[in-house]
Amino acid sequence: MTSPQLPLALKLDTEATFENFYTPERHRLLVNQLAEQAQGRGEKWIYLFGSGGRSHLLQACCHLTEAAGRYARYIPIAELLDFDPEALLEGAEFLDLLCFDDVQLIAGRENWERAVFNCYNKMLATDACLLVSSSLAHAQLQIELPDLKSRLQSLSSYRLSELDEAERMAALQFKAKIRGIVVSDAVAEYIYTRCQRDAKSLFDLLNVLDQLSLVEQRKLTIPFVKKAMNW
């Protein structure tokens, strides 16, 4: 079988891997389940809902699938709502893994609901695995096509919850370590108490500090961070 051709918009973020994902102990089982599915083992149909890294995990699954010489497709629905869903999903039933990100966004869009439903039915006859993500639990989806809603509700459901305060600081240090930066507990706490405390804002600030530290050839100390951020 030849490799399915991916539209340019569907290319994966090279940084979105399992190795780059901070996983607290309470999410370990969930992440392991996703990795198993990506390797063609474990559960075939998974619904992932909640917040804090869904897009990263879906792309990580695709990377892992492709690393084994298999075929995956990542569908970031938020970026593709104006595209023809039938064209985007053509041949998807022959993939090893298909990932829909932010499926709640297709609610009320007849063309998307019908295309996803048709794709699901085709996948029943193949070995393809399906991974769906949403900000909502599947019982809360406002999908208008009853058959599609029931199909989505039949998937094994896992919740990805927000990191707590201690986990967010640990995630900041984890991301820094990947970059080869040492962020002490004191520096992590200093940063955390002075900026927006969601994980994305922390990681964005780390990117800025990383660039500034490279320019000035300085370590991330409290005095350096204070001066760099004008705090």
Automatic annotation (TrEMBL):
Domain Chromosomal replication initiator protein DnaA ATPAse: 12-153
Pfam families per record: Bac_DnaA, Hda_lid
InterPro entries: DnaA_dom (IPR013317), Hda (IPR017788), Hda_lid (IPR055199)
Domain Hda lid: 166-229
Name recorded for this polypeptide: DnaA regulatory inactivator Hda
Organism: Zhongshania aquimaris
